[in-house]
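INTERNAL AUDIT FORM
Audit reference: QA-55
Scope: verify that the stored structure record matches its stored sequence.
Auditor: D.O.
Record contents follow.
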Amino acid sequence: MKLILTFLVIVTSSQLFAREGKELIDLLRKGNAQHDVGNYEQALTFYKKALKYDSISGLVQYEMAYTLLAMKRYDEAAQYSRKVIDLDSKQQQGAYLMLGSALNMSGKIQDAIQVYLEGVSKFRTMHQLHYNLALAYYDIGNLSKSEEALYRSLQMRPGHVNSHMLLGNVLSSRGDNIKSALCYAYVLYLDPEIYNASAIETLLKTKIETLFDTTLGPLQTGRFPGDSIFTIVYESLNELRVQTYEDTSFAHSLCLFLGSLHSLIEKGHPLWSDLYAHTFYGLQNSGHCEAFSHSLSSVNTDPDNESWMRMNQAKVQEMRSWIDTHQPPQKMNQILFGGRSVFR
C-alpha cells in the first residue's frame, strides 16, 4: 500500500509540473507578444504571473529585465539582470549586456565597465560585450581602452558595422585621419543604406579633403599608436597631394586614397592590412572604385553625381556584385595592438 501511495504522489507531481510548465511557457509567450508591440506594462503582468510558477526561472527574470530596460526603468532592470547572473542560467550572457546597459544609461558608467569586464572574463568570444565595453570607455574619453576593446570585437565579428563605426569615431577623436577614413569607408562598404549613411559620407568626405589639403603641411608618421605600418602610405599621399588634377571631386580623391594602400597589404596586420587595405585596394584595382565613390556621394544630393549614376548603371551593378563576393570573413585569427598581440 505504501508503494502504491508513493507512486500516486510521483504521478500527481509529474502531472502538476507538466501542467505548470505549459502554463509558464504560455505566459512567457503572451508577455513576449505584448513586449513586441510596445505594451510593456501588460508584458510585465504576464511575466509576474509566470514568476509565481517558477520564481527562480532565469528566462522569466531575463524577460523582466529586458522589458524594464525598454521602459527605461534602469534600476529595476539592473536588479533582475543581477538575479539572472546569480542564477547562472543560460541567459547569463545576455544578462551581462543588459546589466551593463542599464548601468550605463543611468549614468553609472564605471559600474557598467566593471560589469562588462566581468562578463568578458567569462564569455571571451561574445563580441557584443567587447563592443559595449568599448562604447563605455569611449563615453568617458578612454580612447586607448576603447580601441583595444573594439579590436577584440572585430576579431570575433569582422562584419560588425557598429564596431567599425565606433572605431572610426575613436580614431577621429585622436586626429588619425587615415585610419578613421578607412573605418568610415568600410561602414559604407558593408551597409551603404545604413540609417545615418549621409552623416557618415560627410565624415568620410571631410577626412579625405583633410588628407589632400596641402596647406596643412606634409603627412608624417609617429603621431599615433601603430601608424608605422602606414609609412609608405603617408609617402604616397604626400606625393599625390602636390600633383595637379583636373578632377578635384570627392570621388576622384577617394580613389587616389584607396589606391595608395598597396604597401599596407604586405604589413600583415589582420585589420588594417588583411581587411581594410586588401579590400579597398582590391576594389580599386578591379576598376570598381569610381562606381563605389559615386555611390557614396549619391547619399547626399549632388546633381552631377546623380547624372553620373544614371549614365553608369551597369558599372554600379558590377561594383555591387563585386562587393557581394568580397565580404569580411566570419572571424579574424589575431589582431595586433601597439605591436603586440592583445589576444591571449
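Auditor finding: record pair retrieved intact. The CA atoms of residues 70 and 222 lie 45 Å apart.
Action required: none
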